[in-house]
Amino acid sequence: MIVVCWMPPAPVLALLSTVPASNVQGCRNLTAFLDNSRSSVAVTLSVWNALFLREALSRISGGRAAWVWLFMAPVAHLAILMVMFSTIRTRFVPGVEIAMFLSVGILAYGLFRSSSTRSMAAISANRALFAYRQVKPVDVVLVRAFLEGVIQLFVALIVFAGMSLFGFDVLPSDPLMVMLIFVLLWIFGTGLGLLLSVGSTLVPEIGQVANLLFIPLYFLSGVLFSPSMLPPGLLEWLLLNPLMQGIELLRGAFMSGYQMVGGLDLFYLTAFAFVSLFLGLAVHVRFSSRLLMQ
Amino acid sequence: MILVEDVHKRYQTDHGPGKWVLQGVSLTIPPTVNVGLVGRNGAGKSTLLRLIGGVDTPTRGRIERRCRVSWPMGFGGGLQGSLSGRQNAKFVARVHGHEEDVDERLAYVEGFAELGAAFDEPVKTYSSGMKSRLQFGLSLAFDFDVYISDEVTAAGDAAFRAKAAAAFKDLAGRAGLIMVSHNDGTLKQFCSAGIWLHEGRAHWFDALDDALKAYKESSAP
User: Which residues pair with A228 in a beta bridge?
Assistant: First the structure.
């Protein structure tokens, strides 16, 4: 009975319906309009659903065997580095398989890089879709970042499954920590993607500079080396890079024998992830109408 | 009913803010009236349509849509070139909340657009006539109170134009139409009222002929 009698209070009704009460008079098909008008949340969810399926389709089946290249990129990367390191020196970091050491770094960096650069380009790639007023710039960016995370998760799972066939011990020693850092890197990439998508749409040069900066960032993030090999004076500075901290923490969580460098702080990466996420969302709110201009 | 209140619009250019395209446009567009929008090139016809369609926001002033308004159809907007017509149609159906009856909507679009096998080819391979067929079918597949059309009926062959005209006539009484066209015949065929955009302002005419007359007199040398 209670359920039947319950009527949402007025503010809830106003929230549920996209039509402010004062606008109600004057619409011809008033009842039809109210019945058919969806709440903002319902509109956003259906837009995300549609965008996700659309993006996934073009990412995975666009072009010839596009999905093969998703795996080929990290695998080829790993293979080249393995050849390099095994010819230069046999033992790289004590107590750790070099292939595991490298693949964790490559996949973690790939997750961050692709979720931020792909979502940075989301607005210009989806301009045609803004013809539907339900689709907002922030939707396409968030959906792309989400899709990229899912894809990189599957890439990582398949790469590790393949490595386990070659006899590597790929099971993480601290799976919860691995998941946490994965999510944090993903959120950080999304936040940076949100910021850069606004920046590169309003000032195209920002996008070009950002793409250039990903090259030095690769070398500064410790994908190729262990921070413990660095002199202390340099290490102090490089540890300011949240990405290096994340990758190093991820290696520690993956391989029980790995000696992490001192001075790592999970909170540092967490702060970067969430501050960039909320700053990115705020920037999208601030410039929402500027982003739609042609 | 669509309320346009004191709308100003200018675009941001590379050299700072551009000139005002719309300067204080105030209109009340009643429901179920078919309106033709006339004015010379650059008078702001498409801009006004985009604003009414909610694709862009006015620099000043406000626009209130008290009914369901379609997206502005025209010139390939809203279609993703790399996806097929069917995939585009699915996307539009989902965005408009028709996840459950996607198949029905798709069947309607496919039937209306008569694209045949091309419906499953990427949209970038379409001719402009095929694109406008698809767009037209898409917008008619959903129930709107007001349809916005930016020259979309101008493309397409004679048979399709006849079909589109019949479909629009069918809508009359149930839904309104706001359309831009440089073809007097098209406008007269579909519209009864007219809006003349001139020097950033809009002038409403209850009869389309008066709007066309005012437009022609102003553009005559």
Answer: none
